[in-house]
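Entry type: protein chain
Record version: 2
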Amino acid sequence: MENISKPELVDFLRISDRKRWCFPRIRYASIRSKPMLLQDMRRHFRERWAGKQLLSLVPRNSLLTHVPRIEYNFAKKTFLFDGRHIDVPRASREPLKFSVSREPVTLVF
């Protein structure tokens, strides 16, 4: 995991924080050192080699069933989520999508 660049690690941690794959949250600020980021990542993910060029990240918490299969391809220097290439820098900086509904709402307990 040391061969993954720090900006890619920070972008990956932004996505995992937004999707709530890690609890407690990982502080992913770019001012933190790379060894500190790797230490936090290893607390939440196991590393497994899936071939010579593919590093698979498996969540340590077995209760997280909504986490996709996460792999890093060292040949292409990209992250793969469920086998699909994701542009991690752009995806991590997307604004959150939400909407406000002004209609009456009924809550049932």
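Comment: Residues 6-92 form one domain.
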